[in-house]
Amino acid sequence: xxxxxxxxxxxxxxxxxxxxxxxxxxxxxxxxxxxxxxxxxxxxxxxxxxxxxxxxxxxxxxxxxxxxxxxxxxxxxxxxxxxxxxxxxxxxxxxxxxxxxxxxxxxxxxxxxxxxxxxxxxxxxxxxxxxxxxxxxxxxxxxxxxxxxxxxxxxxxxxxxxxxxxxxxxxxxxxxxx
Amino acid sequence: xxxxxxxxxxxxxxxxxxxxxxxxxxxxxxxxxxxxxxxxxxxxxxxxxxxxxxxxxxxxxxxxxxxxxxxxxxxxxxxxxxxxxxxxxxxxxxxxxxxxxxxxxxxxxxxxxxxxxxxxxxxxxxxxxxxxxxxxxxxxxxxxxxxxxxxxxxxxxxxxxxxxxxxxxxxxxxxxxxxxxxxxxxxxxxxxxxxxxxxxxxxxxxxxxxxxxxxxxxxxxxxxxxxx
Lengths: 178, 228
Description:
A: 3-stranded antiparallel beta sheet; B: 4-stranded antiparallel beta sheet; 10 strands
């Protein structure tokens, strides 16, 4: 789900980009030890082109599976900006999506701190619901609510730490793009 | 009558060269439970102290029930804290020489209430918070959770308009802390008391109706926590 949006986000930096370069940037920022297969890069770009979210230029001479440069369309840009602005449904094990959104927001000069604040609020809203369930429900409800609360709390601690490290993270992202 | 019982407007407060608050503004609705969150050193406790009239701001305004708190003199602020506010802190609130019941009755005695009446009003609070068997225990004979429940009873016994709680479960284990928070929220709702709760703990903040984040001395109201 996040691969197409992340590739769109990388294209939203501005310059038309080869699939090869997109894969390299994806692997260096988002792969977390699991590089994106070339086949997935090109099939994803093909679907994004079919849906009018990117356009591919003419093929350039040379070796390799695809020598086209891809550029994001207004529709694609609108989609990725909408995705960045949306908070993620608070549930356990969100870190990869949260991480991708923060790094992409920094790459695109968007308001990463604002995103983290909104996500914190979404998490706390869900934690309030679970706390109320715990206060008013049976013991089994309380145990289930506790499970969710501890996982959401772990996400929140990551959000707090990332907020505190945002300046340093922005510097790393900026250096990598040079 | 304003829907807000308590407001900080562009409050600045420094301690020597350290600027703790840099234009913090928040508004607390009547009867709501508001948590103030933020990392250590963000200014959240200073904001609570300014709202409660313990500190006076260097700049900005603090309003309680339509009147300026920051313009009051020390005596008037002391009376306000004694009569209209209750306080629960993390540590060391009970007078060690007194029993649990004495501690709960203390705010009433300080407000010159007759002794018999003060104790008659204090005793049900011990029962309400599950401490009826500990009324004659001194604070050294109480567990951390029991001591904090006594502190809560003492903070609420005079029916304050606003309860200020600064990391009220910070020294307690998870289960004991949850029991204290449960009692605090239940009692505040039953009494219609407004609560301003400072915490760095999201699980504690989740007991509140909404949260305000303090960062670098400023209050940040997130979209979901905005005052409607």
